[in-house]
Amino acid sequence: METSEFVIGQRWVSHSDTALGLGIVTDISGRRVTLGFPAADEERTYAIDNAPLSRIVYQQGEEIETFEGERYTVRAVETIDGVLMYHADDGENIQPISEVKLAGSVNFSAPHQRLFAGQFDRNGAFRLRVATLQHMDRLRASPAQGLIGARTQHLPHQLYIAHEVARRHAPRVLLADEVGLGKTIEAGLILHYQLQTGRARRALIVVPDSLIHQWLVEMLRRFNLRFSIVDQARYDDLKAEEDDVDALMNHIFGDDDAVNPFEADQLVLCSLDFLVRSEKARKDAFAAGWDLMVVDEAHHLAWSPEQASPEYEVVERLSEASQGLLLLTATPEQIGLASHFARLRLLDPARFHDLEAFRQEEQQYEVINQVVRRLQQSPETLSPEDQEALAGWLGDELPELLGRDDAYQSVIDALLDRHGTGRVLFRNTRAAIQGFPERQPLPEPLPCPALYDTERYGLEGLAPEQSVPEERWLAEDPRVAWLEKKLAGLRPAKVVVICARASTAMALEHYLQLRAGIRSAAFHEHLSLIERDRAAAYFADSEQGAQALICSEIGSEGRNFQFAHHLVLFDLPANPDLLEQRIGRLDRIGQTDAIRIHIPYLQGTSQEVQYRWFQEGLNAFAESCAVGVAVQEHVHGEWQLALDGDGSRMEPLVAATAAETARLKEMLHNGRDALIELNSCRTEEASALIADIEAEENAAGVRDYMLQAFDILGVDLEDHSEHADILKPGEQFQTGMVAELPEDGLTVTWDRQQALQREDMAFMSWEHPVVTGVMDSVTSAGLGKAALANLSVKALPPGTLLLEAVFAVHCPAPETLQLTRYLPVSPLRLVVDVNGRDLSKALPHDRLNELCSNIRRRTAQAIVPKIRAEVETMVDHAERLADPHLASLRERALDRVEEGFGPEIRRLEALRKVNPAIRDQEVDFLRDQLASARSSLEHASLALEGIRVIVTS
Ligand SMILES: Nc1ncnc2c1ncn2[C@@H]1O[C@H](COP(=O)(O)OP(=O)(O)OP(=O)(O)O)[C@@H](O)[C@H]1O
């Protein structure tokens, strides 16, 4: 329709501002036309000659809606004095409805409707839309999904665990890698995966006070996960926002509607100490409910059959309020086997319900491991006894397992699942991972001053300075002068000094700083979080920073100081796991040098006893010693006597310790540890996963895609350096389409290695929020849904019309079902002409992109109404051609759903017969998921996602 045919009462849309909705012509005077836009409550006047308006004419079969919200189907259209009268069907009667009565809001969701309404885009936008659908499709089906976006090195043991755990529904596991192997990273990967794939939305991280900031920073810089800290101050602030009326209502009617600060954000980080202290906060944290909870340094959760610690009780209660639970500790048995058992019970109460049974089970591990080894080495020659043992463990499931293609691996998997802690416990050791630097113990025996004559032995003797005035021990304890000299000698090397108590750390730091002129900082639990972070940053600063950081035991737990290579143990802890925690501050991933462990100890005191016990008995300085606590329990009497000063006990103690250490290590090596190791990192699977991730990173060309998007969305790109660019909103910037792009720009790198070195640059992977945000905006907005292009080729006569159509599978289903894994976007592209010929193969998308050019908007506006009937015919043809594909897509999806759920359900059912490790809830959940996935797939349909109408010339 020509724009000169404006008549009052007609309905038009503005294609330059689609948000205005359906306009109504209210005035025509001279060469100007005025429209009211009721949906936007606005009026606009245009020059008639070049008004950016398109006439809206609904066709037979389309749905219309009136101002009153009544809906009709159009049966016929007639024009009365230039204004349309729709013959509208309400399901019972057909009645005339004038277009004047139509509602002001329009939503042209179908691409051809957008085209007819003049809401079409340039070719590039259509290309972007198609590319977005294709990338989404590939990514959703990729095993690398959820693991691509982390700014981490690809370490097999971490990725293996993350992949194993993160795919589960509501995973509940103990991550128990040795100190510094990256449990935080593993937890981050799992969180990232679960959040990216919609398996989790609300997550809570609970850590000791001292680690709040480290976790906050680590989650943000490595995973782009923005956690909000809820501490006492924020909690009070949020509570105070509750207005007086709310407060009064809550007071009268109970607390139900009260503001819950834990509900203010989806990702919350808070300290365990805070929850233990505040009953109100605790209640709110329980009430908020979580999909996934992470508890770091979980060895502090002490439990015994007689009594649970307050920390344990808080986490126990919280663990009931959370679907998933990740407990992190490097030293799971630090405070004894009972507490270890109790933590496993938090993860799976049905499986770990009896401490005694748990103890007995551990005895079996060695036998199981022997059979597993024989299975791995030569499955064909398995003895009748082994076969019998297997039948005993696996029952009537064994024949089925042995009948599989990968029979022996299946049997091993089944054994690990059904017996032992296979499903809930993951532990990697330095020995299994390798490549860690050497640890060199450097003992410094020093004479014991008379000052400590009464404090030489017993536990007091380990930190005798506690019982004398500060001034005196600082002056007379030879460890102080030795430390001062050592630091001066090592300057400028960074040195971490750890001692048991905060008071010792404070006094030492004061002394070194003020009296010895050594740049140092103290780091302990009495500092506020900000002070602690400031101290750590001061120490980390390589140019102006402190040379020494004087830490207390608790203050330094979990911290990353691998940039330092010298550790001074100002005293020695009683517990071997605490020693490992201390050395672990430096002995971490990222440590590049040998670690020098300086051990000043006072001769003829319990410090000497402890030094020799660690060194000669446990060899705990040079190597990580996982059995230390168990050995200590075994030799406890001797150890106590030696510590109390009975010199005659020293040699027998060392000998007994060495023997027990060797025995336990051997036993664990053959038993429990071997089983856990088998489960914690399967190298082949890990390598395949890394290959998948790297293929996705290298081949898919996230940068190419984003350049295409930036061009359309008005983001300017400046070259920064190799692999790096600066992104800035340009003049044509489409606000709202690119989330998280700061006004003053963002420096980004596309390269993982560079991202690891340059933390100031954002790491643009397929899973960076800018990239996922653009993909979501493109698919959810109308961008590129309809385009008009010109094609000039000799083979086709001028004036020929073609339609390039892209369909995608739509399947309304709850996001937690994760149906996209089985039924990815599956974009289906077709090219048809007016006669319904399928030209999809003859005219591939890339070729058309090269050959097609844009048509000027005004020309296009004029063309569209003239080709409407042909376009509709071609859309019909395309839909007809697309239709048969739906059945096969659906079938394939159903097969995949069965493949995904079926074996897992069968496995869990079999498992439950021999082992209660499987929660009923888990099996029922999977069954429900399978049923609901099946029924959702019944409703899958192919929706037209975009069209490009091509006119030849
Ligand atoms: N894949 C990785 N890429 C880069 N850095 C890593 C990776 N894994 C771990 N690191 C770094 O190694 C150090 C140790 O990691 P992390 O803090 O996760 O270990 P942890 O096992 O939780 O330690 P702890 O037992 O002390 O709590 C950290 O500085 C971490 O940033």
From TrEMBL:
Pfam families xrefs: Helicase_C, RapA_C, SNF2-rel_dom, Tudor_1_RapA, Tudor_RapA
Top-level class of the enzyme under EC nomenclature: hydrolase
Record-annotated Helicase ATP-binding domain positions: 164-350
SMART domains: DEXDc (SM00487), HELICc (SM00490)
Gene3D superfamilies named in the record: 2.30.30.140, 2.30.30.930, 3.30.360.80, 6.10.140.1500, P-loop containing nucleotide triphosphate hydrolases, Tandem AAA-ATPase domain
Enzyme Commission number(s) of this protein: 3.6.4.-
Motif (DEAH box): 296-299
UniProt keyword Cell wall biogenesis/degradation present: no
Database matches in InterPro entries: DEXDc_RapA (IPR057342), Helicase_ATP-bd (IPR014001), Helicase_C-like (IPR001650), Helicase_RapA (IPR023949), P-loop_NTPase (IPR027417), RapA_C (IPR022737), SNF2-like_sf (IPR038718), SNF2/RAD54-like_C (IPR049730)
Residues that, per the record, bind ATP: D177, E178, V179, G180, L181, G182, K183, T184
HAMAP family, per the entry: Helicase_RapA (MF_01821)
PANTHER family: DNA ANNEALING HELICASE AND ENDONUCLEASE ZRANB3 FAMILY MEMBER, SWI_SNF-RELATED MATRIX-ASSOCIATED ACTIN-DEPENDENT REGULATOR OF CHROMATIN SUBFAMILY A-LIKE PROTEIN 1
Family that this chain belongs to: Belongs to the SNF2/RAD54 helicase family. RapA subfamily.
Stated role: Transcription regulator that activates transcription by stimulating RNA polymerase (RNAP) recycling in case of stress conditions such as supercoiled DNA or high salt concentrations. Probably acts by releasing the RNAP, when it is trapped or immobilized on tightly supercoiled DNA. Does not activate transcription on linear DNA. Probably not involved in DNA repair.
Protein name: RNA polymerase-associated protein RapA
Annotated source species: Marinobacter daepoensis
